[in-house]
Amino acid sequence: MVAYNSHFDAAFFDHLFRSASKTWRELYYYFILDIPSMAWGLGLQDLNSTWIMDRYQIEDEPHLAEQHTGITGAMVNVRIYRALLQYRQDLVAAVPGT
Question: Which Gene Ontology terms cover its molecular function (predicted)?
């Protein structure tokens, strides 16, 4: 699972699966990766900046309460995650001899 606030999202999975007397860990037992940690690992320390969104032209999620849903938040997380993967590729490509 990859999420911006992974503990928040995992709590929803936990509640859903517990209601069926299950655990989501049966399906997914590996690490949970949060986007801020991934960005930090790539050297992006200003996690409140819109730099990555501007550089990779990421459309933000709606900021109106009626339009802001779990899906819109998840989709912006996917776009940021993909941009971070591209940023990593761009960093590697900029290293001479790679």
Answer: nucleic acid binding
Q: What are phi and psi of 66, to 5 degrees?
A: -70, -25
Which residues on neighbouring strands pair with residue 34, listed in sequence order? 3
Amino acid at 63: H
Check: CB of residue 76 under 8 Å from CB of residue 59.
yes
User: What band does 46 get if pLDDT is binned at 50, 70 and 90?
Assistant: confident
* Domain boundaries, given as residue ranges, for the chain: 2-94
Amino acid identity of 50? Answer: T
Nearest CA-CA partner of 83 in 43, 60, 44, 53: 53
pLDDT in tens, 2-29: 788 888 888 888 898 899 998 877 777 6
Per-residue model confidence as pLDDT tens digits over 55-90: 999 998 888 888 888 889 889 999 999 999 999 999
For 23, which DSSP code? -
